[in-house]
Design a protein that fits this description.
By secondary structure, the protein is an all-beta fold. It is built from no helices and 34 strands. One of its GO terms (cellular component) is COPI vesicle coat.
């Protein structure tokens, strides 16, 4: 039997309310103060140490889906009331807002290379909007029941949609939004789909039939099925860092499960939420995973040891979505009563430099080095990027706060 981890933690967050709709950056607290995250024999408390900084709190109707723009400081939010908002998490302002329908918009994604927002709603329609002009450029009936999830392929002109009609469909916008493929096999609502970040031809789906299915583009039937939850599964995500072939899922049995999709086995069960688990996310830059629930909390777990690091509660009722963007520490969380943007971890890396010009630093848990000695007598201006080769030194099992190194290289 696998061990289930419990680690309660209490802290206080101070905040300053400055308007009825937005609380700007004012909250900052620390996740403990111990360097190492590798458990030792008889040591029950070896937590991470990183800051959690709130960048934005925006009140709204119930949030159903979110996305982060990779180039603009934008947070896309689709709402139960049929509206879509785009917030700037830099200026803490609502920069764009438009009505899609009078029914819930359960799915919305940026398509950056086309300047689009693509939405899916309870009227079974997919709509395409230009996010600069807010003009609707296309709409079509995609399913015969509510649309639950949309995924945008990073290189091909495809989107995938999943629905309460128990199907997943592939749409090609270069072929006038032709349905190029239908994926069938689930026996209940398909609540969420997610692309494998390491193999863009593979995706996973979570369903209320209590299964996760893993699919390949080009094949209408699933490669395999993962079973283990006792109730319907609401959410799924792929592990993004390192080489672990892992998936994470959250379900109405209040459990979170971590799966090895190569061995097709559950490797860990995380317990602690008091209600249905509605959102899960592996962080792409930090050694953590995050889970959200109808109990109103977001739990932050260590992705290697699976210990609970902290619990976040912003008082906005049930959690419905967690969104994280590769290459960023920002995390967006959607609730019944609004959305929150937080930044996890330090802004600048821990680093060490010796008299010979050798610099060692930590990019999260990855160690890298350069040697400025190779520049010789080259003249450089302040702020200029230096033409030096970065050498990877591997990763460490801790989240470094400070680094010092021996100049002899040992």
């Amino acid at each position: 039997m696998r061990k289930v981890f419990h680690a309660p933690f209490k802290f206080e967050i101070s905040r300053t309310l400055t308007s009825s709709s937005v609380w700007p950056v004012s909250s900052r607290h620390s996740l403990f103060s111990v360097l190492s995250t590798t458990p030792r024999e008889g040591d029950a408390t070896m937590p991470l140490r990183m800051d959690v900084k709130r960048k934005l709190l925006a009140r709204s109707d119930r949030v159903k889906c979110m996305d982060l723009h990779p180039k603009e400081p934008w947070m896309l939010v689709s709402l139960y009331n049929g509206n879509v908002h785009i917030w700037s998490h830099e200026s803490q302002t609502l920069v764009k807002s438009f009505e899609v329908t009078d029914l819930p918009v359960r799915a919305a994604k940026f398509v950056v290379r086309k300047s689009w927002v693509v939405t899916g709603s309870d009227d079974m329609l997919v709509r395409v909007f230009n996010y600069n002009t807010l003009e609707k450029s296309h709409s079509f009936e995609a399913h015969t029941d509510y649309i639950r999830s949309i995924v945008v392929h990073p290189t091909h002109p495809y989107i995938l949609t999943s629905s309460d009609d128990m199907s997943i469909k592939l749409w090609d916008w270069e072929k006038k939004w032709q349905c190029s493929q239908v994926f069938e096999g689930h026996s209940h609502y398909v609540m969420m789909i997610v692309l494998n970040p390491k193999d863009h031809n593979q995706f996973a789906s979570a369903s209320l039939d209590r299964t996760i299915k893993v699919w390949q583009l080009g094949s209408p039937t699933p490669n395999f099925t993962l079973e283990g939850h006792e109730k319907g599964i609401n959410c799924v995500d792929y592990f993004q860092g390192g080489d672990k072939p892992y998936l994470i899922s959250g379900a109405d049995d209040r459990l979170v499960k971590v799966w090895d999709y190569q061995n097709k086995a559950c490797v860990q069960t995380l317990e602690g939420h008091a209600q249905n688990v509605t959102a899960v996310a592996f962080h792409s830059e930090l050694p953590i995973l995050m889970t959200g629930s109808e109990d109103g909390t977001v739990r932050v777990w260590h992705a290697n040891t699976y210990r609970l690091e902290t619990t976040l509660n912003y008082g906005l009722e049930r959690v419905w979505f967690i969104c994280q963007m590769r290459g960023s520490n920002d995390v967006a969380i959607g609730y019944d009563e609004g959305s929150v943007m937080i930044k996890l971890g330090r802004e600048e890396p821990a680093m060490s430099m010796d008299s010979s010009g050798k610099i060692v630093w930590a990019k999260h848990s990855e160690l890298q080095q350069v040697n400025l000695k190779v520049l010789g007598e080259m003249e450089v201006k302040d702020g200029e990027r230096l033409p030096v080769a970065v050498k990877d030194m591997g990763s460490c099992e801790i989240y470094p706060q400070n680094i010092s190194h021996n100049p002899n290289g040992r």
